[in-house]
Amino acid sequence: MPDGPLSVQDPRDTSAMMNSQETYRSSQNQSKSTSATTNHYTANEASSAAGTPSKDAVAQDQVQVNGTGGIANETTISLKNLPIEEVIVKVRQIVAELEKLEEYHRGEGMRYQKMLGDFYWDYADHRTEIANALSDCGYAALTVKMLKTMNTMGIFKNDDIWFPTYYTYNTAWNYSDASESLAKNLAEADAVRLLTLNLGHKPYLSNIQSKNVYYVLKASLSTLHNIARCSDVKHFFKENKTAEVIMPFISMKDEFLKAISMLTLAYIVEEEENTKLIDETNTISSIVSWTENAVDGGSKRRFKGFTPWELTQGLDKLAVNDTNKIQVVEAGALPVFLRMLQHDDPKEQSSTAHCIWTLSFDKTVRQKIIEHEGLVAALENLSKNENSEVRKNCLGALWMIKGENDPATTTKAEYTFQQRKEYIPLMMQKKYRPDGWLGAILGAKLFFDFSGKYPFEKSMQGLLKELRGRGQLSHMTDSTDEVDGLIAAENHMLIEGNPHKTTVAAHMALSMSRDDVTQWLLNRHLDICVPHMAQLDGKLLWQLKLMKDEAPQFFFHLLDTKLKLSFVDILRFTAAIDELH
Fold first, then answer.
1. Does residue 438 form part of some domain?
2. Could you report the per-residue pLDDT of 139-183, keeping only the tens digit for each?
3. For the chain, how many structural domains are there in total?
4. Which DSSP string corresponds to 185-231?
5. What is the pLDDT of residues 261-311, one digit of tens each?
6. Which domain does 223 fall in, by range?
7. Are 344 and 452 in the same domain?
8. 3-state DSSP: the chain helix, strand, coil percent, rounded to 5?
9. Whether residue 339 is found in the same domain as residue 399
10. Has this prediction a pTM greater than 0.70?
């Protein structure tokens, strides 16, 4: 089984699938209606008197695929045990054949979608590669087109329409879990609107007891969840008011629908709405309980189809809100987190460490983490892990946990002060009053207040002006001045500046490989940038520097809106890229 919630089962097991006549009978007492807004038909829409295939037409493990080109005369048996390179070729050929179809309910649409779905199960170790290939060849837009076309016809009208609809939902659901690229493609192809309309369609909700209707709702929610986990997609959900549509599912008795709804909302609601979600639904304690059940789930480590790392990602999103941090701990998350860190799955280790990192911004929670036996030791052990994501998240959590009391941090600060290094203090936490060594070195310095007390723009202008002067503060008075700003994090940070620091020569930068760029980022404590810049070599990094110099507004807009870097990380990366000369 792959990571992430899947469909009810392997689609080759058709026992869970009712035909359209059964769907009709299950809802025959519901009055017939259609929605002009959504082009959905009710589950009891009249079934076609002719043309309904037998159930044998669905059991196609031996079926011959009709069509032309590279997949003519293929059978599902002949598509097993192939080298992955050949599978990718077949995937592209199947999508090409799907694109040629003018109608999707004559058999070929179902067969092609089923073939793609079978690859998901037959080549489990290569799911991401297959999903990325689907993304590259335009599968997402084609799938949304197919679903919209069959919606217009009425997906429960007869089996000729229902079966290809089922396999299309199934394939999109599973592969969007395996590839962020494909999930984003679905969002860009209008899938969020389509799936949101499914979830708000009253005739569907009235007939949720029908197995097929339930499946459509379940697939719609799960695919939306896969999309919601991606970056830069929140606006699709906001435009379609998806959160409002999903909210009622949290109150349903069905545990899966309740769980997937909570997790999806954790990704798409705004921070201020986050509190309402928690207060009204007991979401945090439920997710912590499900995570523990998943950890106890034997070798599969799943609960209701969810993995521990997936549930922890949902907690992490909720914990961004300050009021939720202590609730996560009070719900009993720390013992579960320790077990996940001690497990050998990098995804579990990485997601858990990142969640602990988020929680550590709260002083009370930070102390509870320190006091929980074995937790800090587990983070320290994994901070040397060969997996870069695990290592990065553990180091981030440890920095927050040990932070001000860490001898290494203290030594660096003292060195900065004694050697008269140039630095620009940033106030990142509301009402924070530095003491000890930090208070000493800040006593007579200008600082920029980004704690949320003041508007962002004025402070940003002042800080950029200061950065352009490379920290030259001689024109300032000895008094401490405050400059307006917006909170960007909950910890304080020193940004050091030295106009004479060592730089990387242009010819050296241009010769850097992707691995060299990754190491360059890690050496400058820019681990957060590594996932976003994994494809950059020295030449592309140099182009990014040129963009900063020639189009600074676009450069900072890119870091902020596209890469989603925090304000502190933007400053760090800007300082680092200035080293390139």
1. yes
2. 999 999 999 999 999 999 999 999 999 999 999 999 999 999 999
3. 4
4. HHHHTTHHHHHHHHHH-HHHHHTTTSHHHHHHHHHHHHHHHHHHTSS
5. 988 998 888 766 666 666 667 788 889 999 999 999 888 899 888 899 999
6. 14-229
7. no
8. 60, 5, 35
9. yes
10. no
